[in-house]
Amino acid sequence: MSHLGIDAGGTSTRAVVLDSGGRCLGHGRSGSGNPISAGPAVAATSMRDAVEQALASAGLPGSAVSSTSVAMAGGSRVAEDDEVAAALRGALVTAGVSAALTVEPDLLALYFSGAHEPSGYALVAGTGAAAVRVVEGEVVATSDGLGWLLGDDGSGFWIGREVVRAVSGDLDGRAPGTALTSLLLEAVPRAAPSTVAALAPGDVQPPELRHLVRELYAAPPVHLARFAPLAFAAVATVDDAVAADIIARAGHALSNTLAATLLPDLDGPVVLGGSVLVHQGALADRVRASLESAGRSMSIRVVTDGLVGAAVLALRRSGVAVDAATFATVTDSLARLR
Fold it and tell me: What's the total number of domains in the chain?
């Protein structure tokens, strides 16, 4: 009996075929699998491609799969969208998989990528940010994950926005000088002189600020996340005080998001994920320190994606008990395949 786990992210879709003992047999990877950002058709195509690769590398037909779990952002909403659900099921059928499909929250898969224990917590900070409490294998509480307009405090978007605000304040005198200014101006290419609109009479706004306003307002707000690395670069290179303050506030915000999900009598593991927490150790350290200062003794585990968790969920949904030994088999065998 084989099982299929799929981690459908905004950047890439990963799939793994495994047996009931947790041994991963085949792995595949393709493009964006998030139907919200990429659209149902693109997500379905990515899923099909990743699944076909995983089956081929495992040397198995799709008919050998008895359970399928796909983890993606907004899992519960996606499962209730008839158009999206039909597109995803169609992708599996095209790949030869007729087993029932269970759509899982991406944060649940993230949690089970770092923990076999049925109860604990997960905190993700990538472009967005959110935390969940998991009890007996299900998400029972969430904090943030509200998007760029209402939340995502401490996320890549949040940090990038603070970088831009700090630079704009530097350029027009509202805020102190910062090394972020030169870094941001280098990161935002200037238009050719012939394409720059002529100044209106009396316009005395600094040309660098006028350039940033024009370029940044032309892109979707969430694209500000691409400037988050500048804060860490400014601290690493010149120990910039403004950038250090942004990072400190991001760490505080993420700690608050996690704290909102904590129960006094549940000291389960805390799984951290997302590009900001994975690649910027300073923020993960701040989250760890906040737990220690609150007197919480909790195991902190950092994971790079939710594929192990998607595999674990495929096993759990088919009735397989995933203990520490089975979890280790999933983790180790997938690492060898990758």
Answer: 2
